[in-house]
Structure formats: structure tokens, C-alpha cells
Amino acid sequence: APLRNLFIPGFLNCWLAKHALENMFNDLHRAMQRSQSALS
Q: What's a GO biological-process term for it (predicted)?
């Protein structure tokens, strides 16, 4: 099962990367909202 040993870490890496990107976008969105409310 060498293929399976490659597939599972790859799947986990994709899931973690997606999760990290979503968190980053959420933080960016919050920061933009904060700066907009400070400007207005």
C-alpha cells in the first residue's frame, strides 16, 4: 500500500491548507470591516 501512504498525507495537507486559507481570509475580512468602520 505505498500509494495509500502517499495519498493520505496529501489529502491531509490539502485539507489543512484549505483550512488555513479560510482562516486567513476570515481574518482579512474582519480587518477590512474594522478599518471601514474606523474610516466612516
A: monoatomic ion transmembrane transport
